[in-house]
Amino acid sequence: MAINVVIAGPRGKMGSEAVKMVLNEEDFRLVACIDRKNDGKTLNSIISSVDATVPIYDDIETCLDQQKEVDVLVELSVPEAGYKHTKCAINHGIRPVVGTTGFTENQLAELDELAKKQNIGCIIAPNFAIGAVLMMKFAKMAASYFPDVDIIEKHHDNKLDAPSGTAIKTAELISENRTVKQQGHPEEKETLTGARGADVDGMKVHSIRLPGLVAHQEVIFGSAGQTLTIKHDSIDRASFMDGVKFCIERVLESKGLTYGLENIL
Amino acid sequence: MAINVVIAGPRGKMGSEAVKMVLNEEDFRLVACIDRKNDGKTLNSIISSVDATVPIYDDIETCLDQQKEVDVLVELSVPEAGYKHTKCAINHGIRPVVGTTGFTENQLAELDELAKKQNIGCIIAPNFAIGAVLMMKFAKMAASYFPDVDIIEKHHDNKLDAPSGTAIKTAELISENRTVKQQGHPEEKETLTGARGADVDGMKVHSIRLPGLVAHQEVIFGSAGQTLTIKHDSIDRASFMDGVKFCIERVLESKGLTYGLENIL
Amino acid sequence: MAINVVIAGPRGKMGSEAVKMVLNEEDFRLVACIDRKNDGKTLNSIISSVDATVPIYDDIETCLDQQKEVDVLVELSVPEAGYKHTKCAINHGIRPVVGTTGFTENQLAELDELAKKQNIGCIIAPNFAIGAVLMMKFAKMAASYFPDVDIIEKHHDNKLDAPSGTAIKTAELISENRTVKQQGHPEEKETLTGARGADVDGMKVHSIRLPGLVAHQEVIFGSAGQTLTIKHDSIDRASFMDGVKFCIERVLESKGLTYGLENIL
Amino acid sequence: MAINVVIAGPRGKMGSEAVKMVLNEEDFRLVACIDRKNDGKTLNSIISSVDATVPIYDDIETCLDQQKEVDVLVELSVPEAGYKHTKCAINHGIRPVVGTTGFTENQLAELDELAKKQNIGCIIAPNFAIGAVLMMKFAKMAASYFPDVDIIEKHHDNKLDAPSGTAIKTAELISENRTVKQQGHPEEKETLTGARGADVDGMKVHSIRLPGLVAHQEVIFGSAGQTLTIKHDSIDRASFMDGVKFCIERVLESKGLTYGLENIL
C-alpha cells in the first residue's frame, strides 16, 4: 500500500525536488501541497513541468482536516512556518519529515513530547544528504583510532564562508572521539601565512574555492605507513532526495523526535 | 605498569616491525622472543639494529615456564607454529595476539573455549591495518543505503592476483548489506572487453597495476547527485603496527576468541 | 571593438549555452541566429530566458547577405547543415568556429583551401572542453617518459558504451608516444574475469558507471617510486563555453583550417 | 655500446640509488666512484649490498686522468664539491649530469661557456623526478587558460617548512602564464583564520602534514563546469632515478649547459 504524502514548500529548491521524487516513487502518493500563495489551485498550474492535479492549500489545518488519509508531512517551506506545520501535523497524528531549520531547544523538546503522546515518529534533519551524513559518522568513528586528521573541503567560488558548515560540524564530531594533539612537527614554520590551514584543537581544516566545483569534502586520517580518506562529492540537490525518501519510510516505524539523520543511519 | 610482551617470529617481516614497535612504546616491555633457530642467544645478536638483550627461546613451553610475568604473546611466526604457540599461551594464562593465518574452524572453536575457561582474551587478526579494516567496515555500513558501488584497488605491478584479497573481502562484506542489482545501463556495451571490470553480484571491481604504487583501494558509492568514497592507502608495513599495538591493549580486557579486527573497532 | 557573432543552432544544448555566453561577454556582440524553424522571429520570442531581440534567419545565405558586419559564425546546429553553413561563411569572408561533427576528409580539405584563399581562419573542434583537451595533450606528452599507464574513466550509469570515446581517443594519443609494453606481471592472473580492465597495446582502460557521476577521467602514469595523474572532471555543459570563447578570439588571428583544439592550445 | 659512468657521492642518499641504477642498466657501465673518504678501496668494500669491485678515488683529477673511457660524470656529492667536479669533468671532455645544488649565476655561465668550447653537453637538475617536473610544466601550460588554481601539497609530518619548495616553485611557474586575479568571492570571510590557505598573487596554496604521507602535490584548475587536476605522488627516492637515467642518455646529444629537467622534457 502506498504511503500518502503532503509536501509543504513545493516551489522551493528542495521542495520542488521532493515533488518530483514523490511523484516518481511507486510506493509514495502525493495527496496535497501546502503553499502560502496558491490556495485552491492545482500543482500542474504552478509548476509547468509537473502534470499532477494535486490540490494546493495555503492553510495546513484546512488541508489536514480535509485530506483524511495522509501518512507523512514533508516540511520544506521556510523557518517561520516550520514549527507551526510540524506541530499541526503531529496533532493530526501525521508523521513529519522536516528539512526546515531554526527550531529552538524548547520547540524540539515540545515536539518530542507531543509525538510520543501521539505514539508516532517525527524526523527533523538539517542535512538530508545520506552520503554527507555517513562521511561525518565514519570520520567520527575513525577519529578514535587516528588522532592525526586534515579536513579539505572544496566549494564553488561564490561561497562566502570558509570553512563550510559541514567542515566545522565534521571537526566537532571528530573532536568527540579524537585524542587532542597539536599536529605537524613542533617546529614547523609557515613561510607563507595560512599555508597550514585553520586550526581546530590541533587538527587542520583547508577550504578550496574554485569555479567548476560544487560541494565536496574529504577527511584524511594518517598514521605510520597508511592514510584513510573519507570523501563526499555532491553535485546536485538531487543528492538530498535519497535522504528524504529514507526518512519518509523510517518515520513510520519510529516513535518521538529524531534529530539528525546520523542517529538513524 | 608496563604490559609484558613475548614476540614469536622476531626475524620475519611483521615480527621485526613488531619488535621495533614494542621496544619504542613506553607502556610495553619486551621480555622474550620465540625463534626456532636462535635458542639461547639475545635479540641484539641476531638483529643488528636492535640493542636489547632480550633472551631468545626456540621452545615456547620453556619460555613461558621460565618467564613468569608475561601478559601477552604476539604470534607472528609461521602457519605451522601458530596454533601450537597460541594454545600454549592460553594454557599458561597468557593472552595471544595472533597475525599468523591458517587456523581451521575446529582450532578456532577450541581456542575460544580454552580462552573462556581461562577467563582471558585471545585476538586472531588476518589484517592488522586499522585503516584497511575500517575501510571495509565503513563500506559494509554504507552498502545498506547505496546499492551502486565500484571497488578500485591499485597495487604495484609485481602482484600476481587480481582482484586483491582485500577487494574480494570488501565485496563480500558489502554483499551482506547491499540490495542486489545489476549496475550500469541494462543495454550498456563493452566495445573493449573488460572495460567494465569484474562483476560480483552486479557490482564492479577494477584492478590497477603500476610501478610506483604499493597497496591502495577505494570504494565508491554513487546515488543521484552524490558519491561517497572510502579510500585506504598503505605504503609501508609500519601500517600494521597501529593494529598490533591496539590489540595488545584490547586483549587484556576481552574474554574468549575475537576473530578479525573489525569486531573490536 | 566588439567581435560580431552569428550563432547557428540557438535552441540546441550547446547552442543555447553559446547564446548565453556570447550575450554575457562584453567583447562579443550577437548579431543574428540561424534556425531552420523560426525565420523572421526574434531570439527572445523563442528562448524565454533571453531578452535580446536578435533576428533569426532560416537561411544562412540571406542572413550573411543582410548582416554586413559579421566577424565569426559559431556553428552548433546539426551534422546535415554543418558543412553548408561553414562553407557559406567562408565564402562571405566570415570565420567559422564549428562544433558540429560529421565532416568528411574531402570536405575538410576543401574548407582548408577555401579559407586559405580568403585569407581567413576556420576552426573545427569535436571537443570544446579545454580541460579535457589539455588532459589528452598532457597524457600524450607524459607517455614519452612513462610507458606504464592506466586510464580510469567514470560516467553516469546511463552511458551505453564503455570505454568512453574520450578514453579511446586518449589511449590513441598516448600510443603515439608510448613504448609498447605488456603492463603488469607477466604471470598475473585474473581470478575474476575483467578485473584488469580492457587492454590497448598492453595499457589498461577501466570504465566506472555510477549514479552521481557525470563525466570524469584520470590518466595515471607509474614508474619506480612515483605516479603522475592527470584528471579531468566535467559536471556541466558550461565546460564547453570556455573553449568556444577561446576559439572565437583565436579564429580571428589564424589562417586556413585548424582541426582540433589541441593544435592551438 | 655501453655508456661509461663515474659517480661522485656513492654513499649519499641519491648517490647510492644511482649506483644501484647504473649497475642494473644494461646500457650503462660503472667505471669508478669519487668519494673523499675511501680512496683506493673498491665499491663492494664500502657498500655491503653491492658486489661490484669498482675503484674509488678521492680526487676527481686523478680519477679522470687514469680512467680513459669515461662518457658521463654523475655528480651527486655535496654543494662544496659540485662546482669543482663539474668543471673538471668538462675540462676532460666528459659530460656532467649534476644533482648537486648551490651553483652561482657566474658559475653556471662559466660552465655553459666551457661546455660549448668542448662541444659537449652538461645537465644540472635541481629535481630529477620526471613526474614532478612534468607536473610543474603542465601546470604552467594550463595556467594560460585557467586563471583559477589551488595548489595542495601533502607531506609527512616531520617536514619543517610550509609550503614545500616544489609548491612555491609551481606557483612561480604558474604566475608566468596566469592572468593575475584575486580568487574566491570578493566578500568571502574566513570564520577560522587560515582556512583559505596561503595567498600567492590571488591563487591559494594549502599544506597538509600527516603521518603516512611521503611527498605529494596536486594542482587543481577550475573553470565553469570543469576542473583539471595534475597530481604527483612520490613515495620513494627511487623516483629520481628515471630522471638520472634520462639525463645520462640525453647529455650525450646536447651541447652547452641545460639547467632544469623541464627544458629537455
Automatic annotation (TrEMBL), chains A, B, C, D:
GO terms for cellular component: cytosol. One of its GO terms (biological process) is lysine biosynthetic process via diaminopimelate. It comes from the Bacteria. Pathway: Amino-acid biosynthesis; L-lysine biosynthesis via DAP pathway; (S)-tetrahydrodipicolinate from L-aspartate: step 4/4. Gene3D superfamilies: Dihydrodipicolinate Reductase, domain 2 (3.30.360.10), NAD(P)-binding Rossmann-like Domain (3.40.50.720). NAD(+) binds at residues 9-14, 99-101, 125-128. Catalyzes the conversion of 4-hydroxy-tetrahydrodipicolinate (HTPA) to tetrahydrodipicolinate. HAMAP family: DapB. This is 4-hydroxy-tetrahydrodipicolinate reductase. It comes from Virgibacillus massiliensis. The gene is dapB.
